[in-house]
Amino acid sequence: MNTMKWLIRRELWEHKGAFIWAPLAVAAALILLIGGGFVYGMASSGVIHLNAGEGATMTITGLPPDVYAKIAAVAASSYLAITAPLFLVLPVVVFFYCLAALHDDRRDRSILFWKSLPLSDRDTVLSKAATALVVAPVVTVAIGIAAALALLLLGLVGGAIRGVNLIAPVLANVNFYLSPLYLLSFLPLYIVWALPTVGWLLLVSSWARSKVFLWAVGVPLVTLALLAWFDFLMARFAGVSMNVKWFGEEVVARVLLGVMPGVWFGDSNGAALIDQSAGLDAPMLLALSYGTLATPGVWIAAAAGCAMIYGAIRLRRWRDEG
Description:
Elements: H1 2-14, H2 16-44, E1 49-53, E2 56-59, H3 65-78, H4 86-101, H5 103-107, H6 111-116, H7 121-161, H8 167-172, H9 174-185, H10 187-207, H11 212-237, H12 244-257, H13 271-274, H14 282-291, H15 296-318
Antiparallel strand pairs: 1-2
């Protein structure tokens, strides 16, 4: 366990720019742009306007207490949504980290140094998988929560200065405290869905001598294109059609897009995700998300991801650039 801890620390030290500075830069940009724009808007006008439909507006000042309570409830349950751009950075970081994780050690010959240490190939590969599946999302979530709280604080203070004091209703709303826990609750789901992609990328990284990206992305896409062409010919001349769409959705998409947060919503009831006018209904989103685990395909893909990670461990034992 102590060895694994230090191996993960090594990954963080060597990729600090991707795992820490990149999300921090995005969070800082969000605070400067959104927070700064909000503060400027509050400072330049004495009231906040709400859209009342058909070009009409009404001021928030003087609204009934139940409307204040609704606005506070939306703010308390949805303030983390403002950091969504952070979770677009995460899949990019994880994707290219996994591509380079085992290939770079062979390319710069540092694998000879690491193999001279009493570190097993299993621990080395598993530490990289754990970094991609657990550490990177946790760091992103932590930075996202901090940025969201900073933006919410700016909004609450700015509103209070202009006579719209929502501080007490927001702090009294239980969703304000539960929202970070709800967000962390998606982590096990993310791990299960990301396993096929992480396993595939680590396998390619441990095998390919060069052009790792082309191998990782090209093989699934070219295979899909060949199957689609073969399916066209079979349907044209033999009247038989294969389910190429299934291969694209269940194999290619899961191999290449599994590290995208929220990819599982494609298997959920999309209509239930549209109406969030009263704020994000986190329990409903969690229920829909974890409901996808009832499908066998998710677990088959996760098992395939574990098998590919095992294959990466075996390949690392003998693969060398020499």
